[in-house]
Automatic annotation (TrEMBL):
Pfam family name, one: Transketolase_C
Species of the source: freshwater metagenome
The keyword Oxidoreductase appears for this protein: yes
CC cofactor: thiamine diphosphate
Keywords (A to Z) from UniProt: Oxidoreductase, Thiamine pyrophosphate
Membrane spanning stretches: none
Protein name: Unannotated protein
Record InterPro entries: Transketo_C/PFOR_II, Transketolase_C
The Transketolase C-terminal domain, residue ranges: 24-143
Single Gene Ontology MF annotation: oxidoreductase activity
């Protein structure tokens, strides 16, 4: 089963036909030393832009597939950076990022400098209206602020939708 992000339908550009993707093999899109950022689909673009905006040295991993997912690549990165954040479009409850964090915490606990965390959508129904949907998913400023706080303080930031007063 393939889940494609509708929000990417409007994207235009050249397709690299030489690119071959192996199922279960993540791609390290950017190397860094401060934090590991794991994402999938359109949130990879959001995470990439947020890393640039925040100015931190982050390793960006595009999982590419969830089942199977590339444990080795993620673990190696977390052991290098000591921090992990998962950026996903899923709602807070039941998102795939919980599985990534659970596995990494069990397999590399001693390597962690701070608690891993997720940047997600709130626990509300996904709005159908495009303008409202854009407010539902994590944005570049939300992700950049969370990454900066995590690296500078080793604290888990409040979810963006709580700090903006959208949900409790």
């Amino acid at each position: 089963m393939f889940l494609e992000p509708r929000i990417l339908y409007a994207e235009r550009g050249e397709v690299d036909t030489s690119l071959k993707m192996e199922l279960g093999k993540a791609r390290v899109l950017q190397t860094g030393t401060d934090i590991t950022v794991v994402s999938l689909g359109n949130m990879v673009n959001v995470a990439r832009d947020a890393i640039k905006e925040s100015g931190i040295s982050a390793e960006l991993i595009d999982l590419a597939t969830l089942v199977p997912w590339d444990r080795e690549t993620v673990l190696a990165s977390v052991k290098k950076t000591g921090r992990l954040v998962v950026v996903e479009e899923s709602p807070w409850s039941g998102g795939w990022g919980s599985e990534i964090i659970s596995y990494v915490t069990g397999a590399a606990f001693s390597a962690l400098k701070s608690a891993p965390f997720r940047i997600t959508a709130p626990d509300v129904p996904v709005p159908y209206n495009g303008t409202l949907e854009a407010r539902y998913v994590p944005t570049v400023p939300n992700v950049a602020a969370a990454l900066s706080k995590a690296v500078s303080s080793n604290e888990v930031p409040q979810p963006w939708w709580i700090t903006e007063g959208l949900s409790k």
